[in-house]
User: Fold this.
Amino acid sequence: MKHITFHLDFISPYAYLAFEHLPRALEGLSYSVAYRPVLLGALLKHHGQLGPAEIPAKRAWTYRHVLWLGQANGIAIEMPASHPYNPLPHLRLALATTPDGDINRHVAETIFRDVWQGGGEASDATRLAALAARLKQVRDGAGDEVKDQLKTNTDEAVASGVFGVPAYAVDGRLFWGFDGLAMLRAYLAGDAWFAGPQWDGADQRPSLLRRNR
Assistant:
């Protein structure tokens, strides 16, 4: 049985879609999953990237794309009233339900669906309180232990090469994005391509880009 670490941030519609689609995408395969909250904004900052919603033209495309992906794959999705929003309360709430850095599927599903179904204001204090009441917490979500856990999760993700979410790590290999689920399935199913030279050799060539620093 292969073990997958699923890196997620509730702010990402692609992470939500991938979370919902994963059981169907990997149907029939033997695997286990650890769902690990990370702070997408910190990943982007580390790699010098802007988020899709920070680029106006890309923001419009992203929202149209995720809504289309939802209907194309039979996944209920509705944009929150405001987006992007501050995901820290959701991430800390998730980590408050566990003694370590990984959450179970029920917790991830509860929070994801609260954000991405219904079209409400994700950061509304009343909604956040109601959401928290639905989840059993074993740590203080506002405490330093949970804050440090989120930083540790994010730092470890960066160190392992994670640059965005959703990202799936298995056997030291990293797969990224909603469309990366098909590639992940092929790897888990034993596709011989992954034992060939292309995985390791794909990026082993010089770049001709020149950047002014």
Q: What stands out?
A: The radius of gyration is 18 Å. DSSP finds nine helices and four strands in the chain. The chain has a mean pLDDT of 96. The first strand starts at residue 2 and ends at 8.
